[in-house]
Amino acid sequence: MEENKDLIIAVAGTGYVGLSIVTLLSQNHKVYAVDIISEKVDLINNRKSPIQDDYIEKYLAEKELNLTATIDPKEAYTNADFVVIAAPTNC
């Protein structure tokens, strides 16, 4: 892989772990946040956090992020260099 290449990264799941990864990686790479709940996707696209976390809320509101949230897995995964699975752990 080329050094300093802008990566396309898809993150499946927008809970605490997924959103933490999304806010970190989207500062330097194109990131797709994928979730099945359209209300969460809408909030993220409007730069509002669907969970209560001071840092995530601050980053979404104030940082320049290359971030798109979607419910369409094809949009996110087709050209992704990496896919991160951030599944719930409370099962």
UniProtKB/TrEMBL annotation:
Keywords: Membrane, Transmembrane, Transmembrane helix. The chain crosses the membrane at residues 7-26. It comes from the Bacteria. This is UDP-glucose 6-dehydrogenase. PANTHER family: UDP-GLUCOSE 6-DEHYDROGENASE, UDP-GLUCOSE 6-DEHYDROGENASE TUAD. GO terms for molecular function: NAD binding; oxidoreductase activity, acting on the CH-OH group of donors, NAD or NADP as acceptor. It comes from Streptococcus alactolyticus. Residues 9-89 form the UDP-glucose/GDP-mannose dehydrogenase N-terminal domain. Gene3D superfamilies: NAD(P)-binding Rossmann-like Domain. InterPro entries: NAD(P)-bd_dom_sf (IPR036291), UDP-Glc/GDP-Man_DH_N (IPR001732). The keyword Iron does not apply.
